[in-house]
Each structure stands twice: as structure tokens, then as C-alpha cells.
């Protein structure tokens, strides 16, 4: 989700968009297989940390097929979901016709400063060609005092989980991708995780983007990191 030159280790925007359009029909099923269905619980936790309620306005960037946006809406928030892959958005609209889904660029959001009570991105920040610019945009459209939440896969550091992680992501996930008919997409996934900043660095970059009191939790044995910060005035 980006414009301009991709960051080191990423693919150009057109290739990433085309990849997500190709895998849209298998995306939800593959997520459930790869995470043993736990991705829903991780999204619920991220929404807990977003702090939305009835009447809140929330923006979900990199919304994909809409699962995180749907969870935000289940708390009574008025939700907009943005993604750059039209085929993913088509599925999101079928799943949640009452949520406003639209095509857009994470690095150049069309919204005004301080428009949302909370802004989220789930498993999409690692696809930003310019992570710092994307984080600044998330902060910009969030109201002062509102939350920005980033849910991402991270690389565990301690054995034996680190060994399992490497075996699963470097070998099993690409094999599942071949079975699903798109080995390139599911080879991109582990490479995008490896190049993404660790929890401490991501927290620092969120703070540099204009967020205060940035914190994070690790779950699933250290495979999943959920970061949140408060938009400064």
C-alpha cells in the first residue's frame, strides 16, 4: 500500500497489489490454516486496545477482506476500511455491507487531520513501501488523544519457537502457497516479515510519527506483536 519507490526488500506497489488481487479468493482460508484460526483472537485484542465504542469513528488501513474493520464495527464504531487491492475489497463488501470500504493509498490517505477516534492496521504495515510515511499518515488522521494500533507478525527470538517459526514460514507457508496456486505470494509473506522492524524499533518509529505513550504486547509465544500509541495534540 504505497506510492513511490519501494523500501529495500519490498516489491513495487503494482506487483504487491496484483499479488493480493490474485490471492483474494483464498486469503481468508489461508489465514485460518496458517494461524490455526487464532488470527480472529488477535484482531479482537487489537480492537480492545483501540478503545472504540458506540459512535466512535474508526479507520482500518490495509483492511484486506475486512476482518479487522468488522471487529471494530461490532463494538459500535462507524468504520471506514481502506485497501489498495480491489479484489480484496469486493470480498470485504460482501462480508460486511454496512461497513464503508474504499480503495485508497495508505501513504496518501484522503481524510482530514484528526478525523478518526482510532486508526488501525492489521498485517498490512509490512507492505508499506515507506513505513515511516505510512505511520505518519495513520497518526495524522487520528484525533488528538485517539489511538493508533498496529497488529503485525514479528520474528520470535528465543528457541525453540524461533526454530519452529523459521521452519514454518520459510518452508511450510510457501508449500501451502503452492497448494493454493500462488507460491510467489506465500514466499513474499515470510520475506516481508523478516525485513519488518522488531517491536522496539517499531515503537520508536511510531513515536517519531507523532504518537505518545507507545506500548506493545507480544502474544502467540512472541510471533504476534500489537503496538498502540496515542496521538499527540
The helix/strand class is alpha/beta
Number of domains: 1
CATH architecture: 3-Layer(aba) Sandwich
What is the radius of gyration computed over CA atoms, rounded to a whole number of angstroms? 16 Å
What is the number of strand segments? 7
Per the principal axes of the C-alpha atoms, what is the gross shape? globular
- Strand fraction equals 15-25%
Cα(first) to Cα(last) distance is: 27 Å
For the sheet with most strands, the description reads:
7 strands, mixed
List SSEs in N-to-C order: HHEHEHEEHEHHHEE
- Low-confidence sequence ranges: 2-9
The percentage helix is 40-55%
Spatial order of strands in the largest sheet? 3-2-1-4-5-7-6
* Count of helical stretches: 8
Structural notes for this entry:
By secondary structure, the chain is of the alpha/beta class. It has a single domain (about 15-230), classed as Rossmann fold (3-Layer(aba) Sandwich), CATH 3.40.50. The chain has helices at about 15-35, 40-50, 65-75, 85-95, 130-140, 160-180, 185-195, 200-210; strands spanning about 55-60, 80-85, 100-105, 115-120, 140-155, 210-220, 225-230. Strand 6 and strand 7 (about 225-230) form a beta hairpin. The longest helix is centred in the first third of the chain and has 23 residues, at about 15-35. The relative contact order is 0.16.
What's the quick description here?
This protein is α/β, with parallel strands linked by helices and 233 residues long.
Question: Topology, pairings included?
Answer:
Blueprint: H1 13-35, H2 39-50, E1 57-61, H3 67-74, E2 78-83, H4 86-95, E3 100-103, E4 116-122, H5 131-140, E5 142-153, H6 161-180, H7 185-195, H8 199-208, E6 211-219, E7 224-231
Parallel strand pairs: 1-2, 1-4, 2-3, 4-5
Antiparallel strand pairs: 5-7, 6-7
Helix pairs in contact: 1-4, 1-6, 2-3, 6-7
Amino acid at each position: 500500500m504505497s506510492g513511490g519507490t519501494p523500501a529495500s526488500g519490498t516489491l513495487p506497489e503494482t506487483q504487491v497489489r496484483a499479488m493480493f488481487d490474485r490471492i483474494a479468493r483464498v486469503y481468508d482460508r489461508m489465514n485460518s490454516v496458517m494461524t490455526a484460526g487464532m488470527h480472529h483472537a488477535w484482531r479482537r485484542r487489537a480492537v480492545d486496545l483501540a478503545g472504540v465504542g458506540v459512535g466512535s469513528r474508526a479507520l482500518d488501513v490495509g483492511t484486506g477482506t475486512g476482518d479487522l474493520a468488522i471487529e471494530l464495527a461490532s463494538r459500535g464504531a462507524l468504520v471506514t476500511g481502506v485497501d489498495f487491492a480491489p479484489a480484496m475489497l469486493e470480498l470485504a463488501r460482501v462480508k460486511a455491507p454496512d461497513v464503508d470500504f474504499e480503495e485508497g493509498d495508505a501513504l496518501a490517505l484522503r481524510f482530514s487531520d484528526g478525523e478518526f477516534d482510532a486508526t488501525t492496521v492489521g498485517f498490512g504495515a509490512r507492505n508499506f513501501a515507506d513505513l515511516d510515511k505510512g505511520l505518519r499518515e495513520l497518526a495524522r488522521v487520528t484525533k488528538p488523544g485517539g489511538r493508533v494500533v498496529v497488529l503485525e507478525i514479528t520474528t520470535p527470538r528465543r528457541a525453540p519457537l524461533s526454530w519452529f517459526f523459521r521452519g514454518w514460514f520459510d518452508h511450510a507457508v510457501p508449500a501451502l502457497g503452492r497448494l493454493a496456486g500462488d507460491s510467489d505470494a506465500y514466499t513474499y509473506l515470510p520475506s516481508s516479515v523478516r525485513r519488518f522492524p522488531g517491536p522496539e524499533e517499531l515503537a520508536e518509529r511510531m513515536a517519531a510519527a507523532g504518537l505518545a505513550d507507545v506500548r506493545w504486547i507480544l502474544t502467540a509465544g512472541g510471533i504476534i506483536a500489537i503496538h498502540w500509541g496515542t496521538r499527540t495534540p
